[in-house]
Amino acid sequence: MSGPGAAASADVAVVGGGIIGLAAAERLVAAGLSVVLIDAAGIADGPSGVSGGLVRAFDPGGGDRARAAAQGLAAYLRRGRHGRWPAVRRHGGLTLVPAGAGGALAGVRAGVLAGVEAARDAGHSAWVHDAAEIRERFPSLSVSPDLAGVYEPSAGWLPARAVARAMLRDAADGLTVLERVRATEVDIRGSRVRGVRTTAGPVAAPAVLIAAGVASADLALTAGVRLPLRSRSIGYCVFEPREAPGDLPAVVDTTTGAWLRRWSDEATGRGGVLAGVVSHVTGVPVTVTRGTPPAEQERVRAVVARRCPALADAGVCGGVMAHDALAPGGEGAVTAWPEPAGLVTATGWNGGAFKTAPVIGERAAARIREVIA
Questions:
Q1: pLDDT band at 6, cuts 50/70/90?
Q2: Parallel, antiparallel, or unpaired: how do β-strands 271-277 and 315-326 relate?
Q3: pLDDT mean over 204-228
Q4: Which helix (H) or strand (E) is 204 found in, with range?
Q5: Which of 133, 138, 143, 223 could form an S-S bond across to 129 if both were Cys, CB 3.0 to 4.6 Å?
Q6: How many whole angstroms from its chain centre is CA 235?
Q7: How many CA atoms lie within 13 A of 199 on its CB side?
Q8: CA quadruple 135, 140, 144, 147: dihedral sign
Q9: What's the CA gap between 301 and 320, in Å, rounded?
Q10: Domain named FAD dependent oxidoreductase: which ranges (predicted)?
Q11: pLDDT by residue (tens digit) across 135-181?
Q12: 3-state SS of the chain: helix, strand, coil percent to 5?
């Protein structure tokens, strides 16, 4: 499955060994196509591998995003095509949204209700609770009366790196992996893709999928395609409160940008809370580092402690600083480019790709099959 060979050929070259590239590669192999997967950092060694891994069927944006989230959770609950992916940690999912005046559920905006209906239409359970109901169900949370919450009992989180490795195993029979190899140029002859040039030699392929996060922009430019992507800071802290909140669901707070879930160290049995807050800092280095600076710890703590008071004086025992690929308008896209023919890009999910990766991967694979045909 792996090899650093000087030259390779396949039906498809996939650049990017994160969750989107892996999901697409698995779908392509399932369709009977051979794939060379190229990644400069190593499989799941970029932001995908350190993702918080939250999965849920509900998306407050409604529309296609809600449908993709619902379908993505269904794929994760099935544990992939062969039933070999890690099982969802079904601690439940709670998405906090603004309520109406006085906390009235009748004031919850239409997009939220549409997202709930999309989750239900896809076969998932989802309910809207007011603040009092949330506090009764989850005593470790502090929720003000002006909030409501969408609760999903089947939602939760997954260990991201283990999921990535499971996708890789599912694709093993038709996949060649070039790890720690950088794609430097899309090879074009006439107006059609012929493969990619890499630091390990050329890879011949009539179709190329670029799903390499921020690095996608430079590679696509060699094919004359401009992807307006910027790096944005992402990260999280692992807090160890005096008593781990055993009732904590996976929480996304749309009003503050905070998110949190349970955390445990299987080796030591220690428990805690993994938590982060959306950052608006862009143009950051394209790196992944373990640990978080004190200033970031306090930025996160100041926000998440409003929802989980036990974190106000909790120690910090770990964390990650990384980056995502920020696209204009905050919307990712799978695009089959008319020129050069054979080029497909899948980029720009702004750190939110994990929960919809099975769906995005399927869409990218479908576009690739079309351009090959």
A1: very low
A2: unpaired
A3: 97
A4: strand 201-204
A5: 133
A6: 13
A7: 11
A8: negative
A9: 14
A10: 11-366
A11: 999 999 999 999 999 999 999 999 999 999 999 999 988 999 999 99
A12: 30, 30, 40
Task: Output phi, psi for 9, to 5 deg.
Answer: -145, 150
Is beta strand 207-210 parallel, antiparallel or unpaired with respect to 230-240?
Answer: unpaired
CA distances from 258 to 27, 88, 254, 272 (A): 33, 21, 7, 16
Instruction: Write down all domains in the chain, each with its CATH number in brackets.
Output: 8-49+161-228+329-372 (3.50.50.60), 90-155+231-326 (3.30.9.10)
Q: What is the mean pLDDT of residues 194-216?
A: 97
- 3-state SS of 48-98 is HHHCCCEECCCCCCCHHHHHHHHHHHHHHHHCCCCCCCCCCECCCEEEEEE
- Three-state DSSP at 294 gives helix
d(CA 318, CA 323): 17
Within 8 A by CB and 6+ apart from 357, the residues are 19, 20, 22, 23, 72
Q: How far is residue 147's CA from residue 15's CA, in Å, rounded to a whole number?
A: 42
With contact defined as beta carbons under 8 Å apart, do 319 and 301 qualify? no
Residue 47 DSSP symbol: G
Tell the residue number behind the tokens 């006085």, with chain if given: 102
Q: pLDDT tier at 45 (50, 70, 90 boundaries)?
A: confident
> What's the mean pLDDT in 281-307?
96
Residue 127: both structure tokens together? 């309910």
- Identity of the amino acid at 245: P
Per-residue pLDDT tens digits for 340-362: 999 999 999 877 789 999 999 99
